[in-house]
Queue: 4 jobs
Job 1
Amino acid sequence: MKTDKLKQQDISPAQEQRLADAMRTLPRAPESPWFTRKVLNRLPDRQRRVAARIEIATCVIALVATGIFAARFLRQTLEAPEIVTGDIMMYLVYLAIIVALAANICDWLFIRPLRNAVQRRNGMARMQ
């Protein structure tokens, strides 16, 4: 219903521009550390979500599986009489997958908690 009323009101571009100019001239609210602290205290604590746990579990399982397949492939190619270009390409593919999964796991385990701690510290420093 509300959208129907809004659709019925035709506002010209000139009126929109005047309204935007008027809003730009409004005074800004003063910065209040008390208000910021009070709002932040009401926010729920950040918890690791279920989706993040599923993501890390999936990455660990994929890393283990890729490592097993890479080891099997390495053993088979070392037993072969010659190594061809396709084998080298497969080594590179396995290496890229393992590096990507390891980077994702390291980000989740080390970088994100560190980033959150720094943000919390900087946020608290701004409020004091």
Job 2
Amino acid sequence: MNCVDMQFFESELSMDDERVCNLLSKILRNFEIKYGIGYQFEGRLTTAYLHIFGNGSEFYGYDNSLEWQGSLRDAAEAGFARKLRMAYRANILNGEHLKLDISGQSLQEWIGANASNGSLKRVNENWIRRFDGSQIDRVNQVIGAASALISWDPPVPKPRRRLP
């Protein structure tokens, strides 16, 4: 499988650190990776492990990790080109990802249209996409609404109970 999952546990190295981008660049220069995710993780190691393989551990409240597990084989065979798992603080994307339609424009155009949508850095045939953690819910909402996220499970408002 040509996918990488990088977790940074409660460490001094934050996702904003340029060393994360340098590490991802080094990986891309030495391995053929079609898709990757990187995120800061706080919690138990077993929960993180379950999240990697989509065994029911949710990283976000709107992340259906079981959907990811069910699509892993198909995604790998398609080169992880059709969709993203979710938008994480750091993603390794391929050229096909950048063509995904997001609100009438390509993902690449959408990212470039507004700095809060993230930034792209090309490394060989791939791209590293990063964005500010304060934007994670908004970015997932927009990309999820465009049906470009495998694990997107939008929150459904609970109906208000009517008193008799």
Job 3
Amino acid sequence: MIIKILRISFLYVGTIIGAGFATGKELTAFFDGANIFTLIFGGIVLGLFAGYYLYLGKTFDEDLSNIAFGKYSKLFDALVFCSVFFVFVSMFDTSDIILFDMFQIKYGGYFTILLTLISALVGISFIKKINGLVIPAIVIMIIIIFAKNPTATIQGKTTLFSPILYAGMNIMLAGYIIKPEGKGLSNGNIATITIITSIIFAIIMTMLFEIVKGSNDIMPLFTISKLYNLEIIAGLIIYFAIITTALSTEAVLIDYLTPYVKNKYIIGLALFLVAIPFKIYVGFEDIVAFIYPIVSILGVLVTILSLLRLFIYYNR
């Protein structure tokens, strides 16, 4: 059982620690001006969300969309689809930025996103194998850069809202993935996973924030890595994280659209073409600034609605 507990824990951690997290931009956007206690609490909230959604999976056989929205479950599906699509567009833009910064390659994002069509050919199992290498590399990179100048920001604001909103933003996809894993787990197993993920996120989020705090760059971790002559290593790790995140999001989008369009290659091509204008006119920075807060609120709403359903279930 310990192997299963660790597998589920790392599945959840890996779902959240992707390219968006690795750039550092998400943390500067959600936790600007925060102190170390807010970041630690943010890690704990992410762990609690993991435990809660696993408990939902243990309690209900229904899809998360049916639990939260009942007969309006198609609305939830549409919200998840939009959330994942904008992450997909973000990867389009960030790959453009990092390839140009590292190698002066123009239009590298178009090449990168075309690679996501591989997901239509090889499936999610291939993505998991790559992700199994990229996620530890991200964590090691954060630890190495943090060790160059370890700090702890005591001054700053302590707030509950930023951690909850950040967890809400991530749970739209992570909850969808983690909820089925709750089936067959005991309450003790779920509690153990909650503790493991809380500790991991509290440590990694705090270290990453201490590295990137105060930066207004689009990819602050990559920028700061240049101070320590680690930009090639950091850039490649972030780039491969972008690839795996893009592949993962397209796999989810294709899965959502397959009941409506049977040919998955057409779906992949259509997603690529539709993403282009969003990449050109919106981009990663605006998505983080304007779209992610909306996704955060929706994630919190889904959690509240599912909690209400759980309350009704135990008081019927």
Job 4
Amino acid sequence: MKVGYIVIWSEKRQRQYNSDYYDGCTYGILMRVNVPAVEEENLVGKVKEKKMAELFANMEHMDIQEEQRKTAEQRQRAERAEERAEREKERAEREKERAEQAEERIKRAEEIIKRAEAKELQCIQNLMRNTSCSAEKAMDMLEISVEKRER
């Protein structure tokens, strides 16, 4: 008699273990696919009640491979958009750097022109002082153009 009791107890214990295992698996899957808590309890309850056939009766059809493909495509589009944005950012930085360099060259050119004009004026004044001539005559001697004379 004791052997029979142990076998029945062992089978009952195995069924309980299997039930707990399936409950845990179902709970884990439902958490993974982000099922609301109310529905989660309902579905796990069906597993505990051994109503497995009803478990997925009301679920919508879902193609996991299609969802994975769509997710991969969206990820690729996002990565391409990110790469384009990065390239545009780098291009904008290069343009900004070029504009700054051009601005710096313009400033240097303006400084050179100012120094040249100052030297030219100094030459005119030296000629006027050393030769006792007029500004007009000194400009003729230095071959300064009419446009420059009007400045």
